[in-house]
Amino acid sequence: MSIVIQLRDISKKIRDETILKNINLSISKGEFISIIGPSGSGKSSLLYILGLLDIPSSGEVYVEGEKIEFTESSKIAHFRNLKFGFVFQFHYLIAEFSLLENVMVPMVKAGISREDAKEKAALLLQKLGLGGKEKRKPFQISGGEQQRVAIARALANDPILIIADEPTGNLDSKNTAIVMDIFCKLHMEGKTVIMVTHEIELTERTERIVKMLDGKIIEDLELSKKKC
Ligand SMILES: Nc1ncnc2c1ncn2[C@@H]1O[C@H](COP(=O)(O)OP(=O)(O)O)[C@@H](O)[C@H]1O
Ligand SMILES: [Mg+2]
C-alpha cells in the first residue's frame, strides 16, 4: 500500500508547553482512520500538521514520499489546496456566496476555469444530496446541509486526503449518521479519510483508531477491514 502521508518524530512546542511529543504516524492510501482522545490531548494540533496548516517544532513530514520543506510557504499553500480537503466542526462557508460559489472557491484558486468549476461544483452538490439548492446562501439551508456543502467544497480538487476535525461535533444524531455515511462512501471509493472525533461510537466505523493523550499517541489500533 502506498503511503499518503507520514510524520516522523514530530514535536510541537508552544512557548514552554510541548503539545505534541515524538509523533510517528504513517497513513496509507485508502485508509479510513479516526483519531480520538480527550479535549486538549493534541488531536487538532496533529491534524494541523498533517494538513500542512501548521509547522512542527521538530521532525519531518512526507507527502506521497516527498519531504516537505517548511520554508517554501507558497508551495505548501498550493500543495495543500490541491492535495487536501478539510472539514471542520464549523463549516466556514462564505455567507455572501451561494452554495455553488462556495464549492467553486478551491477550484478557482487552483486555476480551473469558472465554467469547469461551476460544472464540477454542481456535480458535487448533486452527489451530496443538495441538487436544486445550488443558488441558495448558507443561511438558507440547515446545519446538516451546511456541513455537506463543506464536504463538497473539501472534495472540489479531488484531494488525496480528506482531513476532518470533529466534523459531526455540531450536528444532531441524524445528521451525524448522514455525514458518517458520506465519509464511509468516500472511503469505499478509495479516498483516504482522517477524522478526529471524541465520540467513541463513530470510531467503530473506521478501520484504524489512533488514541491520543497529553500530546502523545498512546495506541494505534488496526481493526479488521470491513464495510463501514
Ligand atoms: N495556539 C496555541 N497556543 C497555546 N496553546 C495551544 C495552542 N493550540 C493548542 N494549544 C494547547 O495544546 C493542547 C492541545 O490542543 P488541541 O490540539 O487543540 O487539542 P484537542 O484538539 O485534542 O482538544 C492544549 O493543551 C491546548 O491548550
Ligand atoms: Mg480539537
Features:
6-stranded mixed beta sheet, Rossmann fold, alpha/beta, 4-stranded antiparallel beta sheet, globular, 7 helices, binds magnesium ion, binds adenosine-5'-diphosphate, 228 residues
Please sum up the structure shown.
Helix content is 33%, strand content 28%. With 228 residues, the protein is of the alpha/beta class.
Please, could you describe this protein's structure?
The protein has seven helices and ten strands. Helix 3 crosses helix 4, helix 3 (99-109) runs parallel beside helix 5 and helix 4 crosses helix 5 (143-154). The strands form two sheets. A six-stranded mixed sheet has the order 6-7-8-3-9-10, with helices on both faces. The chain has a four-stranded antiparallel sheet with strand order 2-1-4-5, with helices on one face. It has helices spanning 43-50, 73-83, 99-109, 114-127, 143-154, 173-188, 200-203, and strands at residues 3-14, 17-28, 32-36, 58-63, 66-67, 84-87, 161-165, 192-196, 208-213, 216-222. 39% of the residues are buried. The protein has one domain (3-222): P-loop containing nucleotide triphosphate hydrolases (Rossmann fold). It is globular, with a radius of gyration of 17 Å. The protein has 228 residues and is α/β, with parallel strands linked by helices. The site of magnesium ion (MG) has 3 residues, from helix 1.
